[in-house]
Design a protein that fits this description.
Elements: H1 3-19, E1 27-28, H2 29-35, H3 42-50, E2 63-64, H4 74-86, H5 99-102
Parallel strand pairs: 1-2
Helix pairs in contact: 2-3
């Protein structure tokens, strides 16, 4: 398998997992990588989300960092915060979310 095929497979797996996060829940970059079968690839999940085309219907905004915080800044922070608040997730002014209450724990993925 070529490197290009590996990347396509990674993206397909990651996007499949993210698509399953229900409204009103969040997941971390690390959780997504692990569920997609790529433990240790949390940074790559973030990079993949940063390259989504404008208007993508993937719920990218439901993915946050392992501290339970929005990792983005500026207008992107505001956009992600607004999307999460619209789904009823309380967020501190600094972008912190309670993982204990809002972390998605799927029974099974796939």
């Amino acid at each position: 398998m070529t490197h290009s095929d590996d990347k396509k497979q990674f993206l397909a797996q990651v996007f499949t997992v993210i698509h399953q996060i229900p409204a009103g829940k969040v997941s971390t970059y690390g959780d997504i990588a692990k569920m997609a079968g790529y433990p240790g690839y949390a940074r790559h999940v973030g990079k993949a989300l940063g390259q989504l085309p404008k208007g993508s219907t993937l719920p990218w905004f439901r993915v946050i960092n392992s501290k339970g915080e929005i990792s983005l800044s500026g207008p992107d922070f505001d956009r992600q915060r607004a999307e999460l608040v619209a789904e009823g997730i309380p967020i501190s002014s600094r972008g912190r979310i309670s993982l204990r209450h809002y972390r998605w724990q799927p029974d099974s993925v796939g």
